[in-house]
Each structure stands twice: as C-alpha cells, then as structure tokens.
Amino acid sequence: MRKYLVALIVIGGAAGVGVAWVMAGRAPGPVLEFEEPTAVGRLGELVLAIETPDGELSALDVVLEQEGQTLQVFSLAGGDAGLAEEGEDRLVLRQPIGRERFEALREGDAMLIATAVRPVLFGYREAATRSEHRIEVRLRPPTLGVQSRFHYVNHGGSELVVYRVNPADGVTSGVRVGDLEYPGFPAAGAGVEGAEPSLRAAFFALLWNQPRDTPITVFVRDRLGNEGSTRFDYRIIAKRFRESRITLSDDFLSRVVPPILQNTPELRVEDPTDLLAAYVRINGDLRRENDAYVRSLAERTAPEILWKGPFEQLVNTAVESGFADQRDYVYDGEVVDRQTHLGFDLASTAAAPVLAANQGRVVHAGWLGIYGNCVILDHGMGLQSLYAHLSQIDVAPGDMVTLEQRLGRSGTTGLAAGDHLHFTMLLNGHAVTPVDWWSGQWVEDRILRKLREAGDPPGGR
User: Fold this and answer.
1) Are residues 197 and 267 in the same domain?
2) How many domains is the chain partitioned into structurally?
3) Distance between CA 416 and CA 418 in Å, rounded?
4) What pLDDT digit, counting tens, does each position of 212-248 carry?
5) What is the DSSP string of 85-108?
C-alpha cells in the first residue's frame, strides 16, 4: 500500500512539473511599446517602453533595418546604458538613432525591430516577444534665403539680418557667429506689416573677444536636426579697445568686499579677512557666475520688439570707462588680476535718478554680485539692457516701463569705486557696445530701413 502511495505521489509530482513546464512555455513575453520616434533625421531618439514582471529581462535587442542592412541599436548583452527603471514592472530604453550615429542611414522608410526575453519558471524557461515599428528617415534640410542687404558690423557691436525659411513651421533659425547662436524671430514681431510666416529677423553681434574673421552664417534647423545654412554679405568694422590700470587700495577693499560676501553666502572663500584674495575671487569667479546668470535671462525675451527709436544715454552724465576696456588690477605695485569691463560707467551726481534707456519689461531687479543692486530690462527679440551699482531700485520683475521711467538711483553697490551707473546692452545675454543703440542714425540705417524694405521688398513679394 505504501509503495502504491509513493508511486502516486511521484507520478503526480511529475505530472505537476510537466504541467508547469507546458504552462511556462505559454507564458507571455514582455510587452513592448515604441513611444518614439515616427521619424528621424540627423538626430533622433528611440524610446521603447518594456512591461515585464519585476522588471526582469534576460535579453533585449533592438536593430534598425533599412534596404537590406541591419544596424545594431542596443543589446543588453553589451550593457544596460540607456535602460532605466520607471516603475516596478516598467523599463524604458532610450537610444540615439539618427544619421549622426548611423552614417549608413538613407532617406526613406526603415524598420525598428525589438526582441525582449524574460525568465519564467524560476529561470528554467524563457518567454520572448518581438515587435516591429516602421519609421521615416528624413535627411533633406530646410532651406533659407537672406533678404536684407548691406550688413555692417562694428567689432563688439550689433547688426540685423532679415531672411526667409522653408518650411515656415517647425524649424529653429537664426545667425551663427563662430560657436554662438542668435535666435531669429517672426518678422511680424519686428513690426513688418503683413509679414508672411516664413519671414524672420535676427539680431546678432561680433563680440569684442571674437576675431574679425569669425565666420557668420544664417542657419535653419528642423526638429530632426537637419540643418541648412548660408553665408551673406557683411563687413566688419575694426574697433580698438583701450587698456587701463585700476589701483586697489585697502580702503576700497574694506568697503566693497564685506558687503558682497554678506550678500553672496554661496560664494565661499578660505579666509574672509584676506580682502585681497577675496576680491580676486569676486572679480573672477563671481563675475563669471553673474554673467552666466545674465546670459540665462535671454531665455525670457519677448518674441517681438518692445523698444521704439534709439536708446538714450543717461542725461547729464560723463563717460568714466568705455566698453571692453582691458583692465589690469594693481595692488601694492603688482598686477593681481585682469578683467574686461563690458559696459559704460556713467557718472553725474550722487544718487542721480537712473532712467530707462527705452521701453521694455523688467526681468531682474535686485542684488547681483559684482553689479550690486541691478535692474535688467528686456526689449524683445534677444535685446536687453543692464543698469548696475544702484543705491535704490524702484521697479520689480514683470513691470513694463516706458522710456525715461525711473528705475532707481545711482550708487556704489557691488564693485563700484564711486557713485555711478554701469550701463550696457545685451544681445542674447552677451554684452555689446551701447554706442550703436544710442545713435539714431545707426538705428535707422541698420535696423528700421531693413524692416521697411522687408515689408515692401524690391520687385514686390
């Protein structure tokens, strides 16, 4: 009887194992979903979602097939870079798959094929899934044509170019100067009446520290990274930048360094009592941090021109320092630092009213490191103006201000040796000489003329 029971148990166990083995073979594999892309170009990203119990995979392979060639996109056997957990049972794979990665890609259709395998029955068996996803490879770049004429760029100064892009939608465009890009905006926002969506306008600059032979091109780029560009006629007008020496006294250091350290707790110095070392740190590291923040404000620019007519220099002021002066800082007869002064120092009387040079929107009003109490106005399409060292601020971020509206009063905050206004113009966050913008003739010839011609081009539309 006992032998009979044992036999039944053995037979039952074997049957159970057999059933489990068969059922495991019928277990579903991972669920695969291609979330991106529908098309790729020079750039493109695969986004593949994988649903699998406990996020377990024993294999995952993705290939891209086109015209008989197979390109390996991902293999779990080679590592899991790009594969991330986004839930208990969910994994997401992200991989670049554009022409930039696969030079063999050609214009036309292609197929993404993913195969995923998960362990079942404690790893004794596996369940697999295969999924296909058709995509389009687009490699033809958008096109453009420059419409404006006579571009003259003062070294350290600004210019405007008007151009057309095709297609009009879904593209990014602007001017590239060396490795810097200046965004283009719809010309309608620049006041061109009846401007078609394809017509764009972009301000750009050749910065003081860029060589005069720096290449300047207009570019247009679609969402897939395909890019077209063209050169256009322009002339660079050479400018000389002065050199000067600034003598640092103990009295000056004791006046400016402690307030800046107090208002900038994130700036750590080894010995706050070593005023000279702290000053060099402020004049270098903090200056770069402040300027990086100023550049970030360009992202808040309005897509249309907010200013009208030439900008105005603060009334009854004398120019104490010019734009892009190369300054040696001297202490006890030795040069301890060298920086570039990117603005104009304008002085009149102590606590003089500081007036808006043109109408715009306040994007910063408050303390800003080396600039002390500072106001920055956005004038649209990447153009902004900066007012520093104020003793008093009378506006707040978001305020719309008019020409000659009082922003505050001049002062000695930040790295100011005496009461004055530090003023500069910014283009996409980069300092440019204000002299151009103070000139009514320059504004008329370099900007307004081109915009009028864009609205009524020679020969009609």
Assistant:
1) no
2) 3
3) 5
4) 999 999 999 999 999 999 999 999 999 999 999 999 9
5) E-SSSEEEEEEE-STTT-TT--SE
